[in-house]
Amino acid sequence: MNKTELGSPTSNSSVLTTGLLNSGSESDLQQRDLLDERKRKRKQSNRESARRSRMRKQQHLDDLAAQVTHLRKENGHIIAGIAVTTEHYVTIEAENSIFRAQLLELNHRLDSLNEIVDFVESSSFEMETGQGGGLVDYGGGGGGGGGFYDGGMNTLNLGFYNQPIMASAYTAGDVFNC
Fold this sequence. Notes:
Elements: H1 3-7, H2 9-22, H3 26-129, E1 136-137, E2 148-149, H4 172-175
Antiparallel strand pairs: 1-2
């Protein structure tokens, strides 16, 4: 053999194997048995390592599957909670709409009552002082009729003040049975 063949890894192993096979000595057989034993142990170790790796991988997959199940269950609870919250929101928003309409109506009634009080107070003042013997226009219009006080009319009989309509949760279809 030349020097390049001796330096290469394949030539060294082939030289050793060839040398071991050709030599029938007991030490060569022991070395071969030792090499075979090491090779067998390495294979067994690799098998065990691969088995442990497969077990870890399976455990990881089982953990991920359990996590997916847990997250889906939690997601279902969250979606149900959102549905309930949305339903409550819609109900409260409808109630608030009714309350807003009632507030506007009550403010309108309060304004009307304040106008009535102002009118009665001014009429009483005019009657006590003797002013306003003729027609006094409180309605802002012209001619006889609603909105005029002539001094002889009952001051509480004020037909020109309209009463507001009460707000309710009923729709027009409910009221008119449509």
